[in-house]
Design a protein that fits this description.
7-stranded mixed β-sheet, 14 helices, Aspartate Aminotransferase, domain 1, Aspartate Aminotransferase, domain 2
């Protein structure tokens, strides 16, 4: 059976299958082994040492590549380790242009770690393509974007950026964590590298930390494979298995995530105490039409502001919720609420944070797959 010919919903189920020859197990076994026996030096069944490769990890890597429409997939011990590997493909003196509306940990890694190695990062608004073009020079080697962005849920036009990076021969990487390949596949739109914090929607059950890189470019794949093995930030077989298992229900989870998000966005949007709702499915979202074009639905990440934008009001609101859990992270089956200014985005300097819209009053939701009516009454009680 040629797996790539199947529809996405089938590939989500069958894409990571390996032939288990021993007993015909339907799920790939969890290969808890650090090493593999060799008949003669160098003569083995495909694996030598589990940092370089492990069959459970291979099953996951091929599944993630398959559903992102990529040829090569690599799993890492966390999303951050995956991003770290991409930047390690660069050289001192190189420059990167990134969205200013970025996951806090990514900003910290770029700014506080890789700046030391003389890689320069420009954090800019991607809302106008001219602004992006202005920051490209001869040293620019990579454009790094998230879309939807975190936590302002802005949308970046992937095809437009891809034509710009093509023109200038620079790499284009998309952190696809918020959308998941169910909603959006950047490689199909011209991106060179897709990155995931599989910790979120891919694994989907808030029980594992794992990262991924997917590409169709053999040169990039070889560099990433080298770094994955040389630096060694690989996930263990159990985490690979949990992620593989989680992905098998990605499509049905995402459907419910999106359905619930739509109901909640509409509820918040008509609530008298709410001033702004940031969700790309709303017609008044500035990039609603771009989202409609490049995503198959609008996702379940949203942020909102109350009319009373004080820190104390925001703290009270998030602490009163009972069905939404106040916690970092996103993308699990359970609904989470977060306060970006003091949680996920606390590592970004206050003036930068506020300039990007992350005010003290901003509240972020990761809408789960519970009963929508329970989520709505929870929000209603908390906002009062
Ligand atoms: C969580 C997250 C990361 C980091 O991933 P980890 O798995 O926590 O290391 C990167 N980007 C985005 C958009 C995230 O939400």
């Amino acid at each position: 059976m040629k797996k790539t010919k199947l529809g996405l919903n089938s590939r989500i189920i069958h894409g990571g299958q390996i032939q288990e020859k021993g007993y015909g197990a339907v799920m790939p076994p969890v290969y808890f082994t650090s090493t593999y026996s060799q008949k003669k030096p160098g003569e083995h069944l495909g694996y030598e040492y589990s940092r370089s490769g492990n069959p459970t990890r291979t099953a996951l890597e091929s599944l993630m590549a398959n559903i992102e429409s990529g040829k090569y997939g690599f799993a890492f011990s966390s999303g951050m380790a995956a991003i770290d590997a991409v930047i390690k493909t660069l050289n001192p003196g190189d420059e990167v242009v990134a969205t200013n509306d970025l996951y806090g940990g990514t900003y910290r890694l770029f700014k506080e770690l890789f700046s030391k190695y003389n890689v320069t990062f420009h954090f800019i608004s991607f809302e106008s393509i001219e602004n992006v073009r202005k920051h490209i020079n001869k040293k620019t080697k990579l454009i790094w974007v998230e879309t939807p962005t975190n936590p302002m849920i802005r949308i970046i036009d992937i095809k437009k950026i891809a034509s710009l990076t093509n023109e200038h021969k620079i790499l284009f990487a998309v952190d696809n964590t918020f959308a998941s390949p169910y909603l959006q596949r950047p490689l199909e739109m011209g991106a060179d590298i897709v990155m995931h914090s599989a910790t979120k929607f891919l694994a989907g059950h808030s029980d594992v930390i794992l990262g991924a890189l997917i590409t169709n470019n053999e040169t990039i794949a070889n560099k990433i494979k080298f770094i994955q093995n040389a630096s060694g930030a690989i996930p263990g077989p159990m985490d690979s298995y949990l992620t593989l298992r989680g992905i098998k229900t990605l499509h049905i989870r995402m459907q419910r995530h999106c359905e619930n998000a739509k109901k909640i966005a509409n509820f918040l949007n008509s609530h008298p105490k709410v001033s702004n709702v940031f969700w790309p499915g709303l017609k008044d979202h500035p990039a609603h039409l771009v989202a409609k074009k490049q995503m198959s639905d609008y996702g379940s990440m949203m942020s909102f502001k109350l009319k009373d934008e004080s820190l104390s009001k925001a703290f009270k609101t998030v602490s009163r919720m009972r069905v939404f859990t106040l916690a970092e992270s996103l993308g699990g089956v359970e609904s989470l609420v977060g306060h970006p200014a003091s949680m996920t985005h606390a590592s970004i300097p206050k003036n930068k944070r506020i300039k990007n819209g992350v005010s003290d009053g901003l509240i972020r939701l990761s809408v789960g797959i519970e009963e929508a009516s329970d989520l709505i009454s929870d929000l209603d009680n908390a906002i009062k």
